[in-house]
C-alpha cells in the first residue's frame, strides 16, 4: 500500500509540474517579464528596489501557496474515508502547534524587515539634489516649476492646458527632488515606471504629511506617461502628463533656452518651443508621445457619437 501511494504521489507531482511549465510557456513571457509579475520596467534605482521586493514577496507567497495546496491535495487524495474506523487523532500535538505558530511569525518578520529596508531607501532624501521640481496639481492639469532656474517672469515653468499635455523635462543620471502641492483638492502624482505614487495635498499640510520625494537618477533617456492616481473630480481621467528624460547636456541646453527670450514671440521659450529648437531626434518632439489630450467638452463628444445612442 505504501509503495502504491508513493507512486501515485510522484505521478501527481509530475502532472502538477507539467501543468505549471505549460502554463508559463503558454504566456509567451520572457524570464524578466515573468519575474516582474506585471510591473512595468523600472527606470530608477528606487523603482528597481521595489520591483525586487515585489518579486520575492510573490515568490515567497507562491512557495507557501504550493505547500498549502500540496497538503490539501495530499489530504484529499490519501486521507479519504476508507472505513468507519476513527483515524488517529492529532489534537493537542505540541510540536505541530509550535510549527504553525513559529513559521508564520518568521514569515511576517522577514517580510516586515525587507519592506522597512526598501521603504527607507525609497523615501530617503539627500541634503542637496541635483535638480528640484515643484509640482503643482490643479483641477485638472499640472504645472512644473524649476525654482533654481529663473527668467524675467520668475522660475522656469510649464503649465498644461486642455489642448496640450504638460512635459516634465528632467535630466537622466541626476538626482531629482519633487515637491508636491495642490491648489484645490487631493490629487496624486504617479509615474508607472517609477513604481511610485504620492498624494498631492492642498495647503495647509496636516498630520506631518511629507510632500516631497526624491529619485537618485533616471537610468535611461525616454518618455514616460504620468497620471493623477486619485479621483479628483469630473475630468480626473484626462489629468495626464509626460516625463521626458534627457541626457544632462541636453537638459542644460533645454533649460538654457527656457531662460532665453524667443525673438518671434518676445516671451521666454515654452517647453515645446525649446524642444523644437533642439536637435536630438524623437526625444525633442515638442509634444507628448505617451498620451494625448482628451476633449473635455462633453457636448462635442455626445455630438460625435450620435448623442450617446
TrEMBL record:
GO terms for cellular component: plasma membrane. It catalyses: 4 Fe(II)-[cytochrome c] + O2 + 8 H(+)(in) = 4 Fe(III)-[cytochrome c] + 2 H2O + 4 H(+)(out). Its EC number is 7.1.1.9. The chain crosses the membrane at residues 55-78, 90-114. Its cofactor is Cu cation. It is a multi-pass membrane protein. Pfam families: COX2, COX2_TM. The keyword Transmembrane applies. GO terms for molecular function: copper ion binding; cytochrome-c oxidase activity; oxidoreductase activity. It is an enzyme of class 7 (translocase). It is found in: Cell membrane; Membrane. Subunits I and II form the functional core of the enzyme complex. Electrons originating in cytochrome c are transferred via heme a and Cu(A) to the binuclear center formed by heme a3 and Cu(B). Belongs to the cytochrome c oxidase subunit 2 family. This is Cytochrome c oxidase subunit 2. It comes from Saccharothrix violaceirubra. The lineage of its organism: Bacteria, Bacillati, Actinomycetota, Actinomycetes, Pseudonocardiales.
Amino acid at each position: 500500500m505504501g509503495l502504491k501511494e508513493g507512486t501515485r504521489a510522484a505521478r501527481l507531482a509530475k502532472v502538477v509540474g507539467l501543468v505549471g511549465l505549460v502554463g508559463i510557456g503558454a504566456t509567451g513571457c520572457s524570464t524578466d517579464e515573468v519575474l516582474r509579475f506585471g510591473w512595468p520596467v523600472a527606470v530608477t534605482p528606487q523603482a528597481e528596489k521595489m520591483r525586487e521586493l515585489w518579486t520575492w514577496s510573490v515568490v515567497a507567497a507562491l512557495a507557501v501557496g504550493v505547500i498549502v495546496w500540496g497538503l490539501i491535495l495530499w489530504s484529499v487524495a490519501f486521507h479519504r474515508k476508507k472505513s468507519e474506523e476513527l483515524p488517529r487523532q492529532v489534537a493537542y500535538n505540541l510540536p505541530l502547534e509550535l510549527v504553525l505558530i513559529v513559521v508564520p511569525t518568521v514569515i511576517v518578520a522577514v517580510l516586515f524587515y525587507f519592506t522597512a529596508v526598501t521603504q527607507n531607501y525609497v523615501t530617503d532624501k539627500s541634503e542637496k539634489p541635483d535638480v528640484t521640481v515643484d509640482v503643482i496639481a490643479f483641477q485638472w492639469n499640472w504645472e512644473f516649476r524649476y525654482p533654481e532656474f529663473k527668467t524675467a517672469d520668475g522660475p522656469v515653468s510649464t503649465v498644461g492646458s486642455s489642448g496640450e499635455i504638460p512635459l516634465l523635462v528632467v535630466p537622466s543620471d541626476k538626482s531629482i527632488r519633487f515637491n508636491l502641492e495642490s491648489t484645490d483638492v487631493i490629487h496624486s502624482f504617479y509615474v508607472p515606471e517609477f513604481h511610485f505614487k504620492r498624494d498631492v495635498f492642498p495647503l495647509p499640510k496636516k498630520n506631518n504629511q511629507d510632500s516631497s520625494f526624491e529619485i537618485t537618477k533616471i537610468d535611461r533617456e525616454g518618455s514616460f506617461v504620468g497620471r493623477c492616481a486619485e479621483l479628483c473630480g469630473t475630468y480626473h481621467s484626462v489629468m495626464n502628463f509626460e516625463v521626458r528624460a534627457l541626457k544632462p547636456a541636453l537638459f542644460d541646453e533645454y533649460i538654457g533656452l527656457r531662460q532665453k527670450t524667443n525673438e518671434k514671440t518676445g516671451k521666454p521659450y515654452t517647453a515645446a518651443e525649446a524642444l523644437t529648437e533642439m536637435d536630438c531626434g524623437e526625444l525633442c518632439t515638442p509634444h507628448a508621445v505617451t498620451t494625448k489630450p482628451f476633449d473635455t467638452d462633453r457636448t462635442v463628444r455626445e455630438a460625435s457619437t450620435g448623442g450617446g445612442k
